[in-house]
Fold this protein.
Amino acid sequence: MSDTLLELIRGRDSHIFLRQVRDWIHEVGACGTTLVKCFGQEFLLPDRLFVGLAQAVSGRRRNLVDQQQSASLSPPPGEYSIARRAYWELRRITVPISAWTEPVVGSVCPTSLATHAVFIFCKNL
């Protein structure tokens, strides 16, 4: 019998308690399990690259979790400057491209580049 665990492995915020992949494996392994497989989930590299570039150009820096949560494709209420509209219009392109490239990116990139990791454990008898 196996159990699956999906956990956040990237991001920073006051409500996030991150552990690296090896720490999750150690923590769950201490409960009498053996890791069967581990792989990354949600890389979204084209979108993350675009957001990073936009932040570098604008001089703003937000954490990775905010970037991913803001991928809803809807501009937040408030400012609707030309630059902000252009940003959100480009996000409407980069997010679908990211989703489309996800299977390829996930097969060639290390798990540590993903925002989440999927762990499959088997209970030791």
Summary: The mean pLDDT is 83. The two ends are 10 Å apart (CA to CA). Helices lie at 21-29, 45-58, 64-69, 82-108. Residues 40 and 106 are 6 Å apart (CA to CA).
